[in-house]
């Protein structure tokens, strides 16, 4: 049995694009619809109109209630402060007093993009999904990998971290297939590290069938088991989903982080990996508060 047929011709082309971590132009896949990439704030619903004029007592009571809300900023359980490093530090509110409104450090359009409609995630509904979109051939993704690994260890029990391989071309499809094959075989952590090392430490682009088989053999996977998983319906479906999400999320460069299928960490204000993760932390906190 041979590997999934396109693997040899398209993986050989990887050497021509290893240095690029941006979407190729012209793009092989259609651009994301404008409705998905435009930032939009949630609409504020108007108060229902009434047919009768309120009495003086009702008006006074309503005015007193509105003043109280304006002074307290509404009910909240904790105060959020931005630390000097840009990370979010939570401070419990003093006594029974309501917390002041959050003064967010990062701005939509400068540090992140909010999609008009939330997109699909693969995590449980009670989790906040943080998805790193990456490519094994990207040197920036390779350098980001140990940093995001350290970050996710302290992300919180309510956070689900996943990886989505970007798919802009047939070459990206084959690299994504490697990741999902490893996941289906239960060796993803080891394979993820080994694939990155093959590309960026050994200069082996895994363009040959025997190289791919050998890499998985080194992880204790028998050749027939590898081939069965590599060509399976489940892996093929996962690759198609990653391609769909690449388009729906409007991914133009990697590495990048998508929070809960709603926010994308991109903008002129992000100048380092630390910036990206600090923005991610704040977006997670926004999701915790239901914003």
Blueprint (SSEs and pairs):
Layout lengths: L6 H5 L22 H4 L18 H17 L5 E5 L5 E5 L20 E2 L13 E7 L4 H14 L6 E7 L4 H15 L3 H13 L8 H9 L5 H8 L2 H16 L7 E4 L3 E2 L8 H16 L3
Parallel strand pairs: 4-5
Antiparallel strand pairs: 1-2, 3-7, 4-6, 6-7
Helix pairs in contact: 5-6, 5-9
Description:
The chain has 291 residues and is of the alpha+beta class. The protein has a domain of 174 residues: Glutaredoxin. It has a five-stranded mixed β-sheet with strand order 3-7-6-4-5, with helices on both faces. A two-stranded antiparallel ribbon has the order 1-2. The longest helix has 17 residues. It is elongated.
Using the 3D structure, state the CATH architecture of the domain at 7-29 and 116-266.
Answer: 3-Layer(aba) Sandwich
Structural class: alpha+beta
Tell me the name of the CATH class of the domain at 7-29 and 116-266: Alpha Beta
Which shape, going by the Cα principal axes? elongated
- Give the CA-CA distance, first to last residue: 51 Å
Strand content: 5-15%
The largest pleated sheet is described as: 5 strands, mixed
What is the number of helices? 10
For the record, what is the CATH homologous superfamily label of the domain at 7-29 and 116-266?
A: Glutaredoxin
Helix content: 40-55%
| Number of strand elements | 7
Q: Reading side by side through the largest sheet, how are the strands ordered?
A: 3-7-6-4-5
Question: How are helices and strands ordered from N to C?
Answer: HHHEEEEHEHHHHHEEH
Radius of gyration, in angstroms, nearest whole number: 24 Å
pLDDT averaged residue by residue: 78
CATH-assigned fold name of the domain at 7-29 and 116-266: Glutaredoxin
**Ranges with pLDDT <50 over ≥5 residues?**
6-20, 27-55, 58-98
């Amino acid at each position: 049995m041979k590997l999934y047929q396109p693997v040899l011709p398209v993986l050989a082309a990887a050497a021509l694009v290893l240095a690029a971590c941006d979407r190729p132009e012209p793009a092989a896949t259609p651009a994301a619809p404008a409705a998905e990439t435009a930032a939009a704030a949630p609409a504020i619903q108007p108060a229902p109109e009434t047919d009768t004029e309120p009495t003086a007592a009702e008006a006074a009571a309503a005015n007193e209630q509105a003043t109280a809300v304006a002074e307290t900023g509404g009910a909240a359980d904790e105060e959020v402060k931005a630390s000097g490093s840009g990370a979010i530090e939570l401070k419990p509110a003093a006594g029974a007093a309501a917390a002041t409104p959050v003064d967010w450090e990062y701005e939509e359009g400068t540090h992140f993009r909010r999609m008009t409609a939330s997109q699909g995630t693969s995590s449980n509904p009670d989790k906040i999904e943080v998805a790193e979109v990456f490519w094994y051939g990207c040197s920036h993704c390779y350098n980001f990998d140990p940093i995001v690994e350290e970050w996710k260890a302290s992300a919180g029990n309510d956070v689900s971290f996943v990886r989505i391989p970007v798919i802009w071309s047939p070459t990206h499809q084959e690299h994504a297939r490697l990741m999902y094959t490893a996941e289906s075989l239960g060796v993803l952590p080891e394979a993820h590290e080994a694939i990155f090392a093959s590309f960026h430490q050994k200069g082996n682009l895994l363009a040959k069938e025997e190289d791919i088989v050998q890499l998985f053999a080194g992880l204790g996977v028998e050749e027939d088991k590898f081939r069965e998983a590599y060509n399976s319906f489940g892996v093929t479906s996962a690759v198609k989903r990653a391609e769909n999400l690449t388009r729906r999320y409007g991914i133009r460069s990697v590495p990048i982080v998508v929070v809960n299928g709603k926010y994308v960490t991109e903008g002129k204000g992000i100048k380092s990996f630390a910036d990206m993760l600090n923005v991610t932390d704040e977006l997670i906190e926004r999701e915790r508060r239901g914003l």
